[in-house]
UniProtKB/TrEMBL annotation:
The keyword Zinc does not apply. The active site is at 50 (proton donor). Residues 16-262 form the NADP-dependent oxidoreductase domain. This is Diketogulonate reductase-like aldo/keto reductase. Signal peptide: none annotated. Substrate binds at residue 108. One of its GO terms (molecular function) is oxidoreductase activity, acting on the CH-OH group of donors, NAD or NADP as acceptor. Belongs to the aldo/keto reductase family.
Amino acid sequence: ITDSFILQNSYPIPCVGFGTWQTPNGDTAIQAVKTAIDAGYRHIDTAAVYGNEISIGQGIKASGIDREALFITSKLWNTERGYTKTLAAFEKTLTDLQLDYLDLYLIHWPASESKYFDWEQINLDTWRAMTELYKAGRIKAIGVSNFMPHHLKALLETEIAPMVNQIEFHPGHMQAETVAYCQSKNILVEAWSPLGTGRVLKNEMLQKIAAKYNKSTAQLCIRWCLQNNVLPLPKSITPARIIENSQVFDFVITDEDMELINRMPPFGASGKHPDQVDF
Ligand code: A2P
């Protein structure tokens, strides 16, 4: 679980992250983060809009682990786009998390063509602030989330290219075009909801394949992400599941089974799409 992918700027990122979307602020988040770190997770993914950064920060503190041993990601919310607001939102997130730097900061959603005439310029202005924070060493790596190839284009022509794109990715919802585009540009793809927020765990074919390896369906999905060179961010607040989701290094999915899963028909997607989200 502490094995790493290496980002395009040579910064290592632990290859399974702990997801915290829909983890309520308060004791639940504190305990979840503490349990995850105790279980060996060193990579925690949160966002300002999750409303739990204060508790995530407390959980990190309570773990007693050295800051340098952890990889912490947060995301800039849609209402804070633009150069000046981005700088301020970043400071607020650091304060809430009680940290003095972030390992990774992402633009949560692209300003998109469905809502903004000048969407590309808005994303560039936001990116200029992220770039500045990166160059000042206050963020070790910068990237985006929920971007499609056409959203990425302009950013790729700036001084510092995005290092990560975090998208919804799980069996039945692979966004193959976006993944191929990112991988061709050396942008690491991260999977939000690698278990389809739990919806894909009911799929019979996945259950059958998982049983063959004596693993749970959740473990199969997480391992399948890794074997596609996509970094999974499974979320759980249940201690047994938090541990279970980290135990994905004692089996290898065969090429045939990878193909079977890769070719599954669409199912289980959240329905959120960068062009449809009304932000
Ligand atoms: P809970 O947090 O109550 O333990 P995703 O990461 O795709 O968003 O999925 C998160 C959902 O899947 C949550 O509802 C979480 O429940 C559930 N979940 C996480 N890990 C497991 C697991 N190993 N087995 C079954 N359900 C899980």
